[in-house]
Specification:
Layout lengths: L8 E5 L7 H11 L3 E6 L2 H13 L6 E4 L5 H15 L4 E4 L18 H23 L6 E7 L11 H22 L3 E8 L13 H11 L8 H12 L10 E4 L8
Parallel strand pairs: 1-2, 1-4, 2-3, 4-5, 5-6, 6-7
This protein binds NADPH dihydro-nicotinamide-adenine-dinucleotide phosphate.
Length: about 260
């Protein structure tokens, strides 16, 4: 237990189940004293989240629906959050989506629709939620998103999602400039491969995990709790001088040739 986020209202987007990266983040933030507000897309995710919270004796401030493909849904969600919580001190963006058909084979075969969907949900959404959250981040704070090495390098089969993550990382920098004057920092965590519902959609995912264990300096897998603690750091005052940054939490895999 720490008190790094004591009395801070933090919005967490993207818990689908106990394997979600956002669930690892939830535990870290809760243990640091944060008041947590959750958003979900599918009703099924909401039910899973409620069960998890109950089982772990975590009392959320509240839970609200938000589909990041829909501007109205985003506006409504943040309006409700703002009205109920008053001030927002932090936001965790842990959402992404691409059709599984696009996560195998050649990137050149990506359909226009598949490309736009991946960009829309996985990259544009960060700008959209930053715009709405900013209205209530009147005391400054932090925004943290989740990215992956496929943004920087060609990772087989990651394809359209790698291109969306590249846009996401560039968005982190542009948004950091926009909201920096309001004392808001925007950063990303680039996690190594972690077995989650979304990861299952990427062809050959198991190989990506085993290569980390084999080649990364730390010779071990990354888990949701490690990403949770790094996200906590970026949201907390300890990272008050850090913005527009991509922090790798990947056992050091990205430095190895
Ligand atoms: P999960 O499947 O657990 O989480 C993905 C989340 O995205 C779900 O909660 C899902 O909500 C949400 N989502 C998808 N579409 C929308 C939408 N239109 N509106 C709102 N929410 C939406 O997978 P992860 O935890 O792995 O993914 C979280 C983030 O971490 C993603 O950005 C992913 O790219 C990133 N990441 C993952 C890595 C990994 O190896 N797993 C590595 C590096 C980064 P719902 O289920 O309700 O539809």
């Amino acid at each position: 237990m720490t008190s790094l986020l004591k009395d801070k209202n933090i919005v967490v987007m993207g818990v689908a189940n106990n394997r979600s990266i956002a669930w690892g983040i939830t535990k870290s933030l809760y243990n640091a004293g944060a008041n947590l507000i959750f958003t979900y897309r599918q009703e099924r995710s909401k039910q899973k989240l409620e069960k998890l919270l109950e089982k772990n004796e975590i009392k959320p401030k509240f839970i609200v629906s938000c589909d990041v493909e829909d501007d109205e849904s985003i506006e409504q969600a943040f309006q409700e959050i703002g009205e109920n919580a008053g001030t927002i001190h932090g936001l965790v963006h842990s959402v992404a989506f691409a059709n599984t058909d696009e996560l195998k084979g050649d990137y050149a075969d990506t359909s226009r629709d598949g490309y736009l969907t991946a960009q829309n949900i996985s990259a544009y959404s960060l700008a959209a939620v930053t715009r709405e959250a900013r209205k209530f981040m009147t005391e400054g704070g932090g925004i943290v998103t989740q990215t992956y090495l496929g943004a920087e390098r060609v990772v087989p089969n990651y394809n359209v999602m790698g291109v969306a993550k590249a846009a996401l990382e560039a968005s982190v920098r542009y948004l950091a400039e926009d909201v920096g004057k309001d004392g808001i920092r925007v950063n990303a965590v680039s996690a190594g491969p972690i077995r989650t519902l979304s990861a299952k959609g990427v062809s050959g995912f198991n190989d990506k995990m085993s290569v980390v264990e084999e080649k990364a300096p730390l010779r071990r897998q990354v888990d949701q709790d490690q990403v949770g603690d790094a996200t906590l750091f970026l949201l907390s005052d300890l990272a008050r001088g850090v913005t527009g940054e991509v922090l790798h939490v990947d056992s050091g895999f990205h430095i190895v040739a």
